[in-house]
Amino acid sequence: MMGSCAAVHALAVAWAVAALLSRATPAGALAANWGTRALHPLPGDVTVRLLRDNGFDKVKLFEADPSALRALGHTGIQVMVGLPNELLAPVSSSVAAAEQWVLHNVSSYISKLGVDIRAVAVGNEPFLKSYKGKFEAATLPAVQNVQAALVKAGLARQVRVTVPLNADVYESLDGRPSAGDFRPDIAGLMVGLVRFLLDNGGFLTINIYPFLSLQADPNFPADYAYFPSPGSPPSQASVQDGGVLYTNVFDANYDTLISALEKHGLGAIAVVVGEIGWPTDGDKSANAANAQRFNQGLFDRILAGKGTPRRPQMPDVYVFALLDEDAKSIDPGSFERHWGVFNYDGSRKYNLRLAGGRSIAPARGVRYLSRQWCVLRPDASPADPAIGGAVGYACQYADCTSLGTGSSCGGLDARGNVSYAFNQFFQAANQMKGSCNFNNLSMITTSDPSQGTCRFQIEIDTGRHDLAVASSASAAATSVAAVLLLALLGLVI
Predict the structure, then answer these.
(1) Would you call 125 a catalytic residue per the annotation?
(2) Residue 10: in which H helix or E strand, if any?
(3) Contact 226/285 with Cβ under 8 angstroms?
(4) pTM (2 d.p.)
(5) Less Cβ around it within 10 Å: N or C end of the chain?
(6) What reactions does this protein catalyze (predicted)?
(7) First-to-final CA distance of the chain
(8) What three-state secondary structure class fits 101?
């Protein structure tokens, strides 16, 4: 028995070392989160071309989106596909359910469409404090069943299992990374989960958001949220930990997790950064200048392969996110819909330097709806009693998060606010006839009403692309348009 256990342990350690080496990011490699919660998703073929044009060779999907996966077939882009939290319970309670999920969402795409799926992300931040333990009991059994399903499918060596976790699963009571440990209420669960991943060739995924640290605490030192520029003095908030000076929150946060793992004998596990980025709208700290500053520092680190003091080689880092998503929940804040390095249509928000000093390239081949906008009629007053209800209705079905204080459209006057809301509804409804007739307060114009930093958008025409690639996106847009049409019948006269 002792010899057998030693052999198993040696195999696990060897597997972990191999995983560490295989997961280390080669200098210059880029990875991104591709979210699909948009009313008019950028078609899959266009999105894949955007990824390849900018050197992204890895992508993470939050669910097994058919349109995205079909587009990724035979591209050479490595894919991490997500199993959503709502599926944790059924998958945890049945190996057969896990096998069916793997068959339909992993095996079939690999064998039939040539999608290079390399990992399954089981759940998404399932131990988040705000979930109040809802997913805790199901997570490890779901991981075990998915692993068993991958073994049965003959994919366990190609497709590894992970669990993306929020940084709230660990803490440091005195602020030093070396004092890091798991959150007490889930410490046993974390040790069991990481041990299983380590023993089965998996890896751990952690989401780190310096922006949220700054956004949640008005006294948080702003410069500590960013990566210091070469030659610049360190932030006054820098943390001295023994012989190491931590000059930014990312390094300190990541190494706090590494310390927690090492305390429990789990330091051999590979740790991937599943989400990190900076939004450009919906909050006073969310703007293009701040996002450019943070993401350029991040990209420079990735391109140089520079890791943290405890893990000197940069791991895989999935930038959050590739594109804005105007249908995401805004429960955490209005900024949730504006994390993209690119706008909803793949256009550049700001410049980022890539390897060799070249700039990021915008999406090619995007087709739009007609060049027209819905605005408040010149002879209509913003003080009209019907305006409040019309604007509220428009923003119920379309994205108006850019109108908030400190946001890109926060400086519009009353007339501009109304026009922006009307146009968002009009575009979300595919510019359908009748969708710009708010009690005769609105009109269609062909003159771009954009002002300053506020862009009055024209939506993507999802129906004018290759149906074999974008069929689900087109169907989704058509479905949304149908819902909006039914909705506007109650208001638009």
Answers:
(1) yes
(2) helix 2-23
(3) no
(4) 0.90
(5) N
(6) Hydrolysis of (1->3)-beta-D-glucosidic linkages in (1->3)-beta-D-glucans
(7) 80
(8) helix
